Amino acid sequence: MDTGDEERPLLHLQPPQAACSEYTSDGSVDINKQPALKHSTGKWRACFLILGVEFCECMVFFAISKNLVTYLTTVLHESKVSAASNVSAWAGACFLMPLFGAFIADTYWGRYWTIVVFVPVYIIAMLILIASASLQVFSSSSNHGDVHRAMVYLGLYLVAIASGGVKPCTSTFGADQFDINDPVEVAKKGSFFNWYYFLISTSSLLSGTVIVWLQDNVGWAVGYAIPTVLMVVCFAVFITGSRIYRFRKMRVSPLTSILQVVVGAIRKWHLQLPHDSSLLYEVESSTSGANSSHKIMHTNEFRFFDKAAIVSAPSDNESTAPMSSWRLCTVTQVEELKMLLRMSPIWASFVIYYAVCAQVPSTLLEQAMLMDNRVGSFAIPPASLSIIAVVSTLICVPVYETVLVPLARRFTGKDKGFSLTERLGIGQALSTLIMVYAALLEMRRLAIADANGLTNQNVPVPMSILWQAPIYFMHGVAEVFAAIGATEFFYDHAPETMKSLCAALGQLAIASGSYFNSLMLSIVAVATTQGGAPGWIPDNLNGGHLDYYFWMMAALSLLNLALFLNNSMRHRGKITC
Hints:
- By secondary structure, the protein is an all-alpha fold.
- The protein is 63% helix and 2% strand.
- The strands form 2 sheets. Strands 1-4 form a two-stranded parallel sheet. A two-stranded antiparallel sheet has the order 2-3.
- A hairpin with a 2-residue loop joins strand 2 and strand 3 (378-379).
- Helix 15 (469-492) crosses helix 16 (499-527).
- The protein is globular, with a radius of gyration of 26 Å.
């Protein structure tokens, strides 16, 4: 949604002397709203403070999400299916709220003040969770169960709200610290994103090992308190650096542009489209400078929205006034909406992909809790297995760049080795294999439970938890192909003025996948417990059929892959002039 810092200014680079000026040449200002000085604001010294906030935010988020299903089942005593459903619903809220946070930041507060407002909300939410996990009154009396549950979920959903305000702002605010008209700073901007994703993976690794171990062996309050204290410290440091940040001036939200096209088309629904598309309204090519736009050629799809660009004769009372943007839109505005519509089938395919990913903190964790977690004298916390996916991703990224891409380039002749469609398709296929392996693993686990007479006992079976390791390894590899590929897709195929909006759509796909998983769990729970049957996912998984659920998700993933391949072949990218 950050129209001010998109690639458009790169189309109109400032003269060489501008890059050598003592002020930034991209219009950024300091906290006093004065032109930002190049030597005393922005760049890496500002980014270190911003990355600190993001690192702590991820530490707190992963400290909760990595082991949440365990907390809900062991502390709140929820059923397996309820815990899995509630975890998916909460994760969906966490990835849905960035749309709200990005809208607030781009339209009203700006990225800096959005971070300043929502980080304290994060800290308050964590204090609530710490209190609910540490106060003796909740563990000594069953009469306070409802109050305890209410406090936990109040804290969890305050975290979701706060996360929605912080997540979409840290990466973009960090990118704001580099002058996009200065080639030297542009190169550093690309390095910023590399370190940004590296720190996210690092925080995930630490939370999945150290923090989860502390939660399981020392106490939940300690596991929540450590990242909270770290967040307080980093936030204080972030505030002290306010004078060195660069800020972008507020601009019209891309959401407004989309709504203008829809409203304009509806208002002119009765008008006939001209046969010559050149008669539709577009700004003059001579427009340049800060207010110039990246024009997009007209296409013949979704023709109804072209009516928003029909130049109609003004009425008497409008003859002396400029035409409102809610009545007349440019062809570029219309085509930007069309590009979003063309992306929608590809976006929808990722709902199923992220529904498979949602099994990691829910059903796969519940499966691991009923497997033997002892390796020698050491007991592996079930939630810590997710670090295998993190390590797999960290290893596979350089392998992908240095080995797979050059090798694929020899056969395909493509600069990137794989086309974007091929990359996404491989990731989707791997997600299908993950569900097939999980189903086969659960079938084997149930057979061992039956052979040892454990069907009616809710205890771990003598089957090593390390059999889940291939699942997490494949999940990490799938992330390299599908998740990182999706980020590239939503960036490359987005309109020039809607890069952040499309990035937020990627987050929305994650949220939708979590909600879809929650919905499927609820439907399965109702459909399979008719007539007093235990169902596929009872509290005692040894007497259930979690494998049926995994087979169902595998079938959906296979169908989704087929639909993805069909839609991707028909997908058309943007055409610019």
